[in-house]
Amino acid sequence: MSKTTKSKKPSGWKKNVKSKLELHYNEKDRLEYLTGFQKRNQLKKQQRQVYKKQQLKSQQKELKQQKRDSLKEHRLKALQDLERIEAQQQSSGSKVVDETQQTNQNQKVTVTITQI
């Protein structure tokens, strides 16, 4: 014969009838929450795309500014070199005999032959 035993609660336990918690759902809000996962994920994806576009634009703007600054610095240096050479020519009294210019792949080369 098998004996079945029922679990008995300790005698100190009482039913807590007063503090039972009841949940009431608004069906429309519940349905929106359950079906809104895809919408929320798409919204997050769009926000990430906007953020990436902003980051890309700011990086491109930064690169353009660096390029401008570098070009400006290069032009200034070339102008200073030219002024220095002209000042040397004037002070030494040298005379320009021949001047030729050559261009090769975005580079301009000027060859000046002077007589001292």
Describe this structure in words.
By secondary structure, the chain is an alpha+beta fold. The protein has a domain at 27-92. The protein is 56% helix and 16% strand. It is built from 2 helices and 2 strands. It has helices spanning 27-35, 37-92, and strands spanning 95-104, 107-115. A two-stranded antiparallel ribbon has the order 1-2. A hairpin with a 2-residue loop joins β1 (95-104) and β2. The longest helix has 56 residues, at 37-92. It is rod-shaped and about 125 Å long. The model has no long low-confidence stretch (mean pLDDT 80).
Biggest sheet, in brief?
2 strands, antiparallel
Determine Rg (CA atoms, Å). Answer: 42 Å
Report strand %: 15-25%
Indicate the low-confidence ranges by residue numbers: none
Count, helices:
2
Please give the number of β-strands. Answer: 2
Structural class: alpha+beta
Order of strands, widest sheet:
1-2
Mean pLDDT: 80
State the end-to-end distance: 130 Å
What is the 3D shape? rod-shaped
Q: Strand-and-helix sequence, N→C?
A: HHEE
What is the helix content?
55-70%
Question: What topology does this entry show?
Answer:
Layout: H1 27-35, H2 37-92, E1 95-104, E2 107-115
Antiparallel strand pairs: 1-2
Summarize the structure.
This protein has 116 residues and is an alpha+beta fold.
